[in-house]
Design brief:
Elements: H1 8-15, E1 33-34, H2 48-52, H3 57-75, H4 82-93, E2 100-104, H5 110-119, E3 124-129, H6 132-140, E4 148-152, E5 165-171, H7 180-190, E6 191-202, H8 210-221, H9 230-237, E7 240-248, E8 251-258
Parallel strand pairs: 1-4, 2-3, 2-5, 3-4, 5-6
Antiparallel strand pairs: 6-8, 7-8
The structure holds S-adenosylmethionine.
Length: about 260
């Protein structure tokens, strides 16, 4: 007798550290699993940029106007397009049919959907975000049948069991978290040995007066400005190998593989 394939939601539940008490369809009433319940905020608030992501307006214009426009300002004219970013992330993660991938701070799910297409029906693509309005938009812009599903949770303390994901993407968000180091620790734990991570985040310019402009912009928007090289070093100290970094404007895309430890 043919057995039916578990849904992406069922597979997601199986990867969680703690089973939500009412585990089952009731928790997916909003079509995403909500582990933050009534709380408006995922983790401690960090400022304006994070607050805007929870409004109703920004998510409606986010994917087609906000992100491409601000992304272009941040990356500069020679930086990748949005489609280019998706292709870079997919390639650097080495996604293949059957892979499991977590898109941390997925926003409206542009990357989550593309990853779903890359991993195919045997794979799993989970979009995680703290904003209800972003997740509502993500659900509205794609089919959640197949490998794609969404989760509302804090990116800084991922709710997954250790070594459960083949790949983690976190684009345009690490600089917005209250504790980026705790987030990187959490990503490291959730990745399987040999699993790949890719991050797009801020990169403060080295020369004045632009360095001062970057610092002030970061303070005003509540976003951390990382130094060039800083994220690669953070991955290295967490045991990542095959680290690559590319810069565009005030952004850096950093990727790496979680070291495979040989027992014995
Ligand atoms: C600028 S958007 C990035 C969306 C998408 N990754 C992209 O590249 O377009 C940042 C996202 O991070 C989410 N976010 C910020 N802090 C978070 C946290 N602590 N936990 C979960 N999501 C968070 C926001 O809700 C927002 O959707």
């Amino acid at each position: 007798m043919p057995t039916s394939r578990p849904t992406a939601q069922e597979r997601l539940l199986g990867l969680l550290k703690e089973k939500p008490e009412e585990a089952g369809p009731a928790l997916f009433d909003q079509h995403y699993l909500d582990l933050l319940g009534a709380s408006e905020q995922a983790g401690p608030p960090t400022g304006l940029a994070q607050r805007l992501m929870r409004t109703s307006l920004v998510p409606t214009i986010y994917e087609h106007y906000w992100r491409p426009a601000l992304g272009r300002v941040a990356k500069g004219l020679s930086g990748p397009s949005m489609a280019g970013e998706v292709a870079i992330a997919t390639n650097l993660l080495g996604l293949e049919p059957g892979s499991s991938v977590l898109d941390v701070a997925c926003g409206t799910g542009r990357f989550t959907r593309a990853f779903g297409a890359a991993v195919g029906p045997d794979g799993l693509s989970v979009g995680l975000d703290g904003s209800r309005t972003m997740l509502a938009r993500a659900l509205g812009s794609g089919d959640t049948n197949g490998p794609v599903t969404y989760l509302r949770a804090d990116a800084v303390a991922l709710p997954f069991r250790p070594s459960t994901m083949d790949a983690i993407c976190c684009f345009a968000a690490l600089h917005m978290f209250a504790d980026p180091d705790a987030a990187l620790d959490s990503f490291t734990s959730v990745l399987k040995p040999g699993g790949r991570v890719v991050l797009l985040t801020s990169a403060r310019r080295a020369w004045q007066p632009m360095r001062l402009v970057d610092t002030l912009g970061g303070i005003a928007s509540g976003q951390r400005m990382f130094e060039r090289g800083e994220i690669g070093e953070k991955l290295r100290t967490r045991g990542f190998t095959e680290i690559s970094v590319r810069y565009a404007g005030i952004t850096q895309i950093v990727a790496g593989s979680r070291r495979v430890t040989i027992a014995g």
